[in-house]
Amino acid sequence: MSSSRSSLIFEPGTIYCGDCKDVLAQFPEECVDLIYIDPPFHSGRSYEVLWGDVQEVRAFEDRWGDVQRYLDYMKPRVLQLYRVLKRTGSFYYHCDWHAGHYIKVMLDEIFGINQFLCEIAWKRTFAHSSANRPGINHDTILFYSKTGDFTWNKVYQPYSPDYVETFFVHSDPDGRRWQRVDLTGAGTGKGPSSKPWRSIDVAAKGRHWAYSHKELNRLDRDGKIHWPKKKGGMPRLKQYLDEMPGVPLQSVWSDIRPIHNLAQERLGYPTQKPLPLLERIIKASSNPGDVVLDGFCGCGTAIVAAEKLERRWIGVDFSPTACRVMAERTERDCGMVEHPITGKIDKNQKYYKLANMPMDEATLKQMPPFEFQNWAVLQLGKVLRSPAHVTRTFVNDKGIDGKIYLVDNVELIHKGKETLFGEKTPYIPVQVKQKAKVDRLDIDPFETALRRDRRSAGFFIGFDFTRGALNEIQRVRREGGLRIYPFRVYNLIRDEFVSDLPIWRELGE
């Protein structure tokens, strides 16, 4: 599941866990066609995040102190992104109003001021009220190329309702809307385009036909020419709304809505962007088969968009939790599965790889608490081959950090069977402690949490357990009917199920 931290192989279809500065330093030069990044903004905010499917509330710090500190953090990472970008590649930096102008100066230094192509304004919210200034309701996306030779595909935005109402004012009996468009162009010549058609001499008016006579006959036969009732009036082309591609892409994007709080797409990541936004960028600046890179991948919207558009992709994120969320999303939204380390490969199956995940005790001990908690709960689920969900809220977690759902006991729900305390939903609470040794004082609150949650069993994860903690686990099992199963991080790392207790038989009683 993990690869060496000292040697990473550039391989599209891989989610790399780590700082993009360090990960990309091991990639070859000019190997990526398109880069999009949406790094933490210089917003001065601190907030909590609910990670949808895994139900994790994560403290997300977005506080840099001053702009220069933020730029000092970002510059070496952008330099690596620039290094791996192909000469024909494009780069998009998603930011907001707090530091966007400072970021542009930094990007001008790295890419060159002449390689700045456009500043895109994306309307990310509806009307926003502010007491002492206009409401700020847009993000900025800075668009650069590495050279003048870059990919650009025509992309269109839909017409605004006002434009449609103003110009497409005519309609056929079947309801198809159309507008009248001139069939001629300015100026005359000696060629066929200046000759009369249907007795109409456009040259006499200083103009020429914009279509050949053969094309005009075809348009008329197909009912696409409007003939005015007024005698001598000029025929016009009937340009149907449903045949028009829309408006060529402009720098203001107000037609892509942000993700609504109740949207199915929403995962709870604080700066999650809607899928159509990334699809537009990828369509415009890459072709099928190109490599798309997101160096601050978050919940993986760029990955999903790239996969759906038949691009190859690479995702990088410092957070192990984010990488696991990305992996789950590729499985759910793209039908992919993790590439097995050994075993037979199905040629009809799409695979992804998860690389560089923290899998040694020293690294796990230094991991931020919420990251360690998520790793421990999800890794226990992997070891037990059962679904795992992180539930901690940091505000009112009631002593339960996660839940393991027992696949083998799903029938308990359907049969209405009850376990020791009468619970009908077959999950087991999990408690996690990121300390050298779990002691008895850590076990006591978990006992209370289990009884309050009407659970007869629970898992406790720690690096090690004192004799007092193990004695207390045995006592509550013997006297209180509570079964607490201690799991050491050492065994979780090695994907080992180690216990002297027949868990599945006991929990299935």
Q: So, CATH architecture of the largest domain? A: 3-Layer(aba) Sandwich
Number of strands: 25
Please summarize the sheet with the most strands: 10 strands, mixed
Mean pLDDT: 84
- Read across the widest sheet, the strand sequence of neighbours is 16-6-7-5-2-17-18-1-20-19
User: What is the C-level CATH assignment of the largest domain?
Assistant: Alpha Beta
Q: State the end-to-end CA separation.
A: 34 Å
SSE blueprint and pairings:
Layout: E1 14-17, H1 20-24, E2 32-37, E3 45-51, E4 56-62, H2 67-84, E5 85-95, H3 100-111, E6 116-123, E7 138-145, E8 156-157, H4 161-167, E9 170-171, E10 177-182, E11 184-186, E12 207-209, H5 213-221, E13 225-226, E14 236-240, E15 247-248, E16 252-253, H6 275-285, E17 291-294, H7 301-308, E18 312-317, H8 320-334, E19 336-338, E20 350-355, H9 361-366, H10 369-384, E21 388-390, E22 402-405, H11 411-415, E23 427-432, H12 440-452, E24 457-462, H13 467-480, E25 483-488, H14 489-493, H15 503-507
Helix pairs in contact: 2-3, 6-7, 7-8, 12-13
Characterise the protein shown here.
33% of the residues are buried. The protein folds into 3 domains: 14-157 and 248-355, Rossmann fold; 161-243, no CATH class; 361-507, 3-Layer(aba) Sandwich (Trna Endonuclease, Chain: A, domain 1). The radius of gyration is 30 Å and the shape is elongated. 29% of the residues lie in helices and 24% in strands. The protein has helices at residues 20-24, 67-84, 100-111, 161-167, 213-221, 275-285, 301-308, 320-334, 361-366, 369-384, 411-415, 440-452, 467-480, 489-493, 503-507; strands spanning 14-17, 32-37, 45-51, 56-62, 85-95, 116-123, 138-145, 156-157, 170-171, 177-182, 184-186, 207-209, 225-226, 236-240, 247-248, 252-253, 291-294, 312-317, 336-338, 350-355, 388-390, 402-405, 427-432, 457-462, 483-488. It has a 10-stranded mixed sheet, sandwiched between helices. By secondary structure, the protein is an alpha/beta fold. The protein contains 15 helices and 25 strands. β3 (45-51) and β4 form a beta hairpin.
